[in-house]
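Aim 2 progress update. The chain analyzed this quarter is reproduced below.
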Amino acid sequence: MTATEPSIDIARLEKVRRTGTKLTARCPACAASGGDRRGEHFFLNTADGKFGCGAYPGDAEHRREIFALVGIIGERRPDPERDRRWKMDRDDERRRESARTTLIETAKATRAHIIARHRWVPCDVWENSPQRIDGPLVEFDPRHFIATLFPQDATVWTGDERQSGQHGKHAARWQTVAAWQELPAETVGPMISPATWPTGTISRAAENVASSPFVVLDFDGFDGLKPQTPQEINRHVRDAIALVRWIREGLQWQLAAIIWTGSKSIHAWFHNPGNAALQSLRDAASALGIDAGLIGRPEHPCRLPGQRHAKTGGMSRVLWLQTPIP
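Predicted structure tokens:
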């Protein structure tokens, strides 16, 4: 980028913030495909006109797309059709944003009613589980958990969240389900990603995912407040399980597993319901105490059963588990 490059029509940007000569905003190119909703990717130095996207550093084509959308009118070719599409896209996005806001407000307003109506106490969860949770194989064995959810020939990753990306050092963290069954339980995990991977994968990057059969919902606290005391944690787990039941019965998502992480949260595994359903839940996630950033992120690690939590010393365990796949 050079100081002689044309600048940007700031009036066309969304979610603009300024700090001195630095301006940040929602990236127009990312926004065109529904991305960068937080308005963090685009940057502009108003002193010299240099601009770019933090999500695509050094990507000249992405920058050209940005300029095509919001470059100063006098220094780009007139294109009435492009401008018409831009305005329509922005109007559509504003309508979608309004709908998301309404959905979040509705979810927050009705959360207490949902929890009360779908109360699911732990003893009933255990009794309802297709596999009985009264033995160490189902409750704590990570190999049994993996074999229940994935086909024997599927390649899955397990390990520490840092064990990814290095040839020779991390390749062994990708094994078929059948191969994981042959290893001692203590060598499996402590984490797994709810994805399958091509043979030979050594990096847990999103672009390497072969399939995403599951979505894992992390119930980590309501209204931005994480539970602290034992009483708060018990209440949070109870309320989160009620919401899992509502998602299962009210939204008709297919439940695969519920795991208590050994700390303050539970992870609910659901069979992937499709992109439209994921987006709807993602929009309302914060109001429901769900980590929205993990929805639709199959490469992200989550805890296996039978793992001791480093901070609390609690042992992660299964609370509910589907029957093994055929």
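Residues 196 and 283 are 26 Å apart (CA to CA). The longest strand covers residues 214-219. These observations will guide the mutagenesis experiments scheduled for the next reporting period.
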